[in-house]
Amino acid sequence: MFSALLQNQIQKSVAGLPVSVSWNGERIAGDADAKVAILVNDAKVLAVLAKPTLGGLARAYVEGWMDLQGKAQDILSLGQAYCGVDARNDAETRKDWRWWRHTRSQDRRNINYHYDVSNDFYGLWLDRRRVYSCAYFADGNENLDLAQEKKLDHICRKLMLKPGETFLDIGCGWGGLVAHAVEHYGVKALGITLSDNQHAHVQRMIEERGWQDRLEVRLMDYRDLPAHQTFDKIASVGMFEHVGRKNLRVYFDKIYSLLNTGGLVMNHGITSVAVKSSGLGSGISEFIDEYVFPGGELTHVSNVLAELSMSGLEPLDAENLRPHYGKTLWEWVERLEQHSEQALSMIGERKYRIWRIYMAGSAFAFDHNWLALFQIVAGKPDAQGVMDYPYNRSHIYR
Questions:
Q1: All structural domains of the chain
Q2: What is the pLDDT of residues 180-207, one digit of tens each?
Q3: Is 104 strand, coil or helix?
Q4: Are the C-beta atoms of 178 and 169 separated by less than 8 Å?
Q5: Chain-centre distance of CA 339, in angstroms?
Q6: What is this structure's pTM?
Q7: Which residues, including other chains, have CB under 8 Å from residue 366's CB and lie 6 or more apart?
Q8: How far, in Å, CA of 57 to CA of 360, rounded?
Q9: DSSP structure string for 98-110
């Protein structure tokens, strides 16, 4: 009787939607010719389908309680219509009582969980430099390799890098930005990461290119950078989402102390769109925290600017690359799906499903203005408040 009630509720919830729902080879709801098919593998999913949330559907897919057939874009569009939500309207900031959430040891474990899956796995779907952050489609028609190269150059131009300057990349990934800065702008660079795999990859690159006197990579937490070592320019790309909202002041205070007077910093990171939001609603933030980015936290760009300013840094330029990240993520999803057999052999079915649904869901969120991606350039004025910065942006778009 209970199953019959659930089936009736599922039929009502999918009425008019382009989806079919099947269980044990029998269609129990929806349209047989629909763009998206839900194949139920475990009765656990029936309760999720009866009262769906986006996070609940993602969990059911990852755990194998159901299979999803159809194009990723169609699956995400269906999910939004099915759940009837605008996920950005999660207005109240969550109070997190887990004091250990961003200790050094916990942050190290969180980074290892996400980034130390397999260098070869990331190599399947990232560009040739393995740049794991939003690309820059200056014309909109670039392939992924060119768009990522343009993003690296976009950052270097914003920072006005010059030969001989010292440059720090906090969370350097697989070394794409530091390599570009060393090769094309003649800086002396340091990259830091908490990922063992990334550190080993960059170290090999340094040795292969003979850059021991031009580039260094360290396996370390940004909080442990020595106070006596300062830099002319600093970048942080796709890293501050791991810092934690309560640590933003610590983060920017550290950057201020590491930056030479008159120097520039560029912070590139995902922000929420709802002003009071701490993350996406409909169970999405909880899903991401458990399956994808443990410890990841978002805040509105206004909070980023406030914390940055309270640390003594002067905001000079802010650019929202939201459409660029949606396009980047769809490129990644397509490339992952094209290499699905190799990916499955490397990381297994469950992790493959995590990355596929996470990246497709993130692409959908950027496309629909649930998330934003801001590049913020700030400077460290001298004691009189003087900051030598151009009157226009011609140095970026020359």
A1: 2-83 (no CATH), 99-379 (3.40.50.150)
A2: 999 999 999 999 999 999 999 999 999 9
A3: helix
A4: yes
A5: 21
A6: 0.92
A7: 322, 323, 325, 326, 329, 372, 373
A8: 13
A9: -GGGGSHHHHHHH
